[in-house]
Amino acid sequence: MEAWAPEYGLPADPDHLEDPSGAVDLGVELAAGQWSPITPAGAAEPPGCVVFVDGVQRIDARIWITDGDRTRPGVCASVAAGAVRCEGSAARIADPRVFRGVYAAVSDAAGPIVTRHGAYELVPCAGDAPDSLHNGIRNQMTRLEAQLAADGADLVVFDGPLRGRADAKGVGFVKTHQVGYLPDGEQRVLTALEAGQRTPLFLIGGAGVTRWSWYLRLPGPVIHPLSGVVRCELPGTGTVNEARVRADEISAALPRFASEPHKEARAPQNLYPIAGLEADLRRRLGDREILERALRLAAH
Amino acid sequence: MSDVVGLVIGTDDATPLEFWVAVADGSHLQLDDVVAVTRVLPDGERINLYGIVSQVRARHEGVRFDSDVFLVAEGRLPAEVSEAAQIQLTRVAPETFVPPLPGAEVRRATGTERDAALDLEDVERRLPAGLSRNDEPIYLDLDFVDGTKGAHVNISGISGVATKTSYATFLLYSLFNSGVLGSEAMHAKGLIFNVKGEDLLFLDHPNAHLDPDQRRRYSALGLEAAPFGSVGVLAPPRSGDPNATPATSSRASGVRPFFWTIADFCEQQLLPFLFADAEDERQQYTIVVQSVTAQLAQCARQSTAPDGAVRIDKTTVRDFRTLVEVIESKLASDNPDPRWTGRAVGAGTVGAFIRRLHASVRHVEHLIRADIGDAPDHAIDLDSQQVTVVDIHRLHDRAKRFVVGVVLRQAFEAKEASGSAKPLQFIVLDELNKYAPSDSGSPIKEILLDVAERGRSLGVILIGAQQTASEVERRVVANSAVRAVGRLDSAEARRDQYGFLPPVQRQRATILKPGSLYVAQPRLPVPLLVEFPFPAWATRPAEADRSQAPSGRGPTQPDDPFEGLS
């Protein structure tokens, strides 16, 4: 077991790991060069049931697996995923799940670790490199999120990019802007957005996995040109028109959930239901020090 | 036998005396509910912890700010509602004081387990003391009332909520009629001083306002909803009435007048009871009082007429006014008689005594007289009926003290003389602060202290009441094994005298509704909330069911019998 505290060498926020590859087609809704902010029309009725899906992950301990002469690194991590159903005047956390795993490259020596606070199941990763292990954790979290039921929802908001999820009602909700999809001309439209307005759609991605995407400014104080701007993603199916109607509906529905800076450090992008869900999921991960102690006892 | 209502929480300390329970979905706990939880020790011994709910709380979990409640209510932020109840321990059996463990199942205590929780299992003689909020009977251990292990009941509470006197009479009724006294119930006696209105003059009349609901409450306690069976009512004579007809306005029949003859007054040395004011004790003239009392006793021994008159020197004294004049002539003449004044007493002191004596004349002259032929019939007789009500509400404070002091001494001395604790003599006295004030002494206070301290072995049981226990002599209250508290003024509730009430109960005591009190008894560390049924006897003239008597008046029955009293 690694003596260093697990925080060291943490990966970047999974949100940051967007796929920068692939083409960007700006001219799907309005021709490139003719962009202007769009005030979404919204649906006649706001969605009755909005489900927010999110997951959290935490590294509980770093371990060393002795495989014959070789010693390989591994990671013990807990991930949790859950959904908040916002229906009428009630927001309920539904179906929270927790998974604890040992992430390591495939080898004869690697196996699950049973502690007095639960078992860490083996999740084989592609290799020993830190990135491989971290991808393994993130993929496990995505798998957990994918198991969540969102029956009867009018809108399912996934925190972060879609990462291949193709729920017909789903939308990816990206809070940070690590990748610049827009050239300078269109960037000006982005900074000119008023609260509640969105940019025209653009199509991103290649190799068959395309997504409709647009930027939306949430209500809140504007401190810098991109304050409160988020990027949304829809699966790249259907016609432009269908995507446009859907984007309008979603853009009209989301500002209601925007958080305020005095309550939420990442306001307004970190929506209230997601903030509440993350707090709840982190609680469900359990106390890290307790788990670390249990792992240390189990390793001896 | 048990149903689980929740689990002991682990986010607050659980101690053997107090712990919190998270209430399970679909269950609820309310204040005063009785619960039980079991802890199994490593050696397999099962420890049962019993307690009552002293506080309940509900809160949002998973939110940080108070204003988050708006987000939660609008469905924008997820949160869980958590409900928790604080349990105050009433008993641990067997006595191993370990805390319940977080996660332990807490069950509602019913039936025999409730008895165990309230430490009633081995109580053989159970005195019904009222009902819990969910209409289950609450008992007192008679051993702590009748003098076996403890005695006396003390009741505090602000006036006007019809609780103190009503509860005192309810306890008396329960003592006499529940069968808890066994065969002694026939012989046990009650003495009640009626200090306010003519409230207690109708104890033997059914209450016309008693509805079937209240009757059910009586039967839940194993009591019959009926008035007192054997009641004698005594009232002072009308002032200035030569026939000494009793001065009651609402009750005409069955009331006897009471007074003392001049001979009684002298022989029984009642003079000090006229000097029972708080300031009297601090005055020099107590020595004069003693001397005069001794002289009067001597005169009475020498010559007493059959009608109760006393001859002092050459004057036959038949009324109190004459008696005062005779005493004055002995003390204030040019040559005062040192046997009457006492030694080395200045003229000023004698003057103060005489002024005081004069002032009392118009308040007590109708109580001390020898101008009625059949004087012996008018003595206060506690034995010819079970409950004797002595009405003193119309009397001046000075006369009230006189009557209370004299009657208490009579009752106490009778028990002292008999030398046996049985049959029991119960005494109900409201406004104890007047008779046993905390800050001064008086002859009555001495007697009350005697009752409080020795009455237990003599079989004289005081059921005392007062608005504020802080104004009553500490030893009188401290000697009461059972203490009840009705609604308290919030400033009063903070005083040390109510230290037996835990903070939550103390706070709740300020909002208790009429007809409910906290009753603290030695067996339980936590006072219990007790509701007693509406009196089955009339507590004011309008309630008296006079179907057998003329002039049956009374308003229609209100839905809430205590309405308008809060």
Largest sheet of chain A: 11 strands, mixed
Number of domains of chain B: 3
- The average pLDDT value of chain B, as a whole number, equals 85
Strand order of the biggest β-sheet of chain A: 1-9-10-11-8-7-2-3-4-6-5
Q: Biggest protein-protein interface?
A: A-B, 20 and 16 residues
Give helix % range of chain B.
Answer: 25-40%
How much β-strand is present in the residues of chain A?
25-35%
Task: Fill in the keyword field for this structure.
heterodimer; A: 300 residues; alpha+beta; 31% strand; B: 566 residues; alpha/beta; Elongation Factor Tu (Ef-tu), domain 3; Rossmann fold; 3 domains; 10-stranded mixed beta sheet; elongated
Commentary on this structure:
- The complex is a heterodimer of chains A (about 300) and B (about 575).
- By secondary structure, chain A is of the alpha+beta class.
- Chain A has five helices and eleven strands.
- Chain A has a domain at about 1-45 and about 155-270.
- Chain A has helices at about 130-145, 185-190, 240-255, 270-285, 290-300; strands at about 25, 50-65, 70-85, 90-105, 115, 120-125, 155-160, 170-175, 200-205, 210-215, 230-235.
- Chain A has an eleven-stranded mixed β-sheet.
- Chain B folds into three domains: about 5-115, Elongation Factor Tu (Ef-tu), domain 3; about 125-235 and about 385-545, P-loop containing nucleotide triphosphate hydrolases (Rossmann fold, 3-Layer(aba) Sandwich), CATH 3.40.50.300; about 260-365, no CATH class.
- Chain B contains 15 helices and 20 strands.
- Chain B has helices spanning about 70-75, 110-115, 165-175, 210-220, 260-265, 285-300, 320-330, 340, 345-365, 395-420, 430-435, 445-460, 475-480, 490-495, 505-510; strands spanning about 5-10, 20-25, 35-40, 45-60, 80-95, 105-110, 125-130, 135-140, 155, 190-195, 230-235, 255, 310, 315, 385-390, 425-430, 460-465, 480-485, 515-520, 530.
- In chain B, the strands form four sheets. Chain B has a ten-stranded mixed β-sheet. In chain B, strands 1-2-5-4-3-6 form a six-stranded antiparallel β-barrel.
- In chain B, α7 packs antiparallel against α9 (about 345-365) and α10 packs parallel to α12 (about 445-460).
- The interface of A and B includes residues 84, 89 and 276 of A.
